Amino acid sequence: MFGLNDNVRYFMCQHPVRMNKGIDALFNLIKSESPLSPMNGDIYIFFGQNRQNVKILKWDTDGFLLYHKRLERGSFELPKIDPATGYYELSWETFSFIMSGVSLESVRFRKRYRTRFLSI
Hints:
The protein is of the alpha+beta class. Helix content is about 15%, strand content about 20%. It has one domain.
């Protein structure tokens, strides 16, 4: 219910977002800026200007969940992105590293077989 795991897709907004936005404003931002549907169960990630705050929006079958994390010190490291691509899809591993404070430049992924299981 409240968990974030590797069974969903993660999309990061490519520009900073004011952290006073709530569920409705973030929902409208997704609807206006991307072809993605906020109600499909995917996770949408929004960072503040100084990258010390993150908000995570998730549809949970009958309503939205909004997670908010503020760092007391330091900032989140974001991946290098192409602003022309709209919302940027992150892997579960990259999302987990960002939230844990791991330097993305030092991470090297080794090749692995991966398959996505769809829940019915």
